[in-house]
Design brief:
5-stranded mixed barrel, globular, Rossmann fold
Length: 240
């Protein structure tokens, strides 16, 4: 069956999905890392491709930006297509001066001050964890491949934090002791949907901006940095 947002047929989406936000990044991953690739969804331009990576069937599908978009696509993948694992790969802003451009962050917990959980499931929940099993496999893969990885708590915002009129006021509202290392916009809804549906989810992020960093990366540097994260996600998917 298809859904209002996904035209893929049953059996066309793998049990494990790598999920960037950008549809063109999904296309890039499919064309450069997967074999035997088939485009299985292009509704609303939200491309999904299924192929093989080192012999394992994997789907790469875009989520779009923000918690509502991620919430829709992850829910449908889990509930209607039998997906078991989603690894989000995206960009983030750094909240720590020691983080450099293109450092890779693995979310340990995600905080949102929004009402996604209350609206979806009538639960006043603002901190949610990813799958420990999936995170452990990503950490194991990073260690075995010599990939540097920062594991820490992250915040998931309702708007692009760079555009906040006063980000320090937002940071002051984060629960004491949470101590976030970075910010992005999709992980909370992904983790919460996975929790409700008893599935597995993780979130990998590459640092692309920080108030502590003044230099601007070249397009080549940016792509190489993202490639390291993509390979980590794909190699981790081989273990699930």
């Amino acid at each position: 069956m298809s859904t209002p947002h996904n035209e893929a047929k049953q059996g066309e989406i793998a049990k494990t999905v790598i999920m960037p936000g950008d549809p063109l990044r999904a296309k890039y991953i499919a064309e450069n890392f997967l074999e035997n690739v088939k485009l299985v969804n292009q509704v609303r331009g939200m491309y999904a491709y299924t192929g093989t990576y080192q012999g394992k069937e994997i789907t790469v599908m875009a989520s779009g930006m923000g918690m509502p978009s991620m919430g829709i696509y992850s829910y449908e993948l889990y509930q209607f297509y039998g997906v078991e694992n989603i690894i989000r790969i995206g960009s983030c802003g750094s909240y720590k001066p020691e983080l450099k451009l293109f450092d890779i962050v693995l979310s340990e917990n995600a905080f949102s001050e929004g009402n996604f959980a209350l609206t979806l499931n009538n639960e006043d929940c603002h901190i949610v964890a990813p799958s420990k099993d999936l995170n452990d496999k990503i950490i194991e893969t990073a260690n075995s491949t010599g990939t540097s990885l920062v594991v820490g708590n992250t915040v998931c915002t309702d708007c692009f934090d760079v555009y906040m009129t006063d980000v320090n006021q937002f940071l002051a509202r984060i629960p004491e002791g949470f101590n976030p290392v970075s910010a992005e916009m999709e992980a909370f809804s992904l983790f919460y949907v996975a929790k409700v549906l008893q599935k597995k989810a993780s979130c990998l992020m590459s640092v692309v901006d920080s108030k502590f960093i003044k230099e601007i990366a070249t397009p080549e540097e940016r792509q190489n940095g993202l490639n390291t994260m993509i390979k980590l996600a794909l190699n981790s998917a081989l273990k699930v």
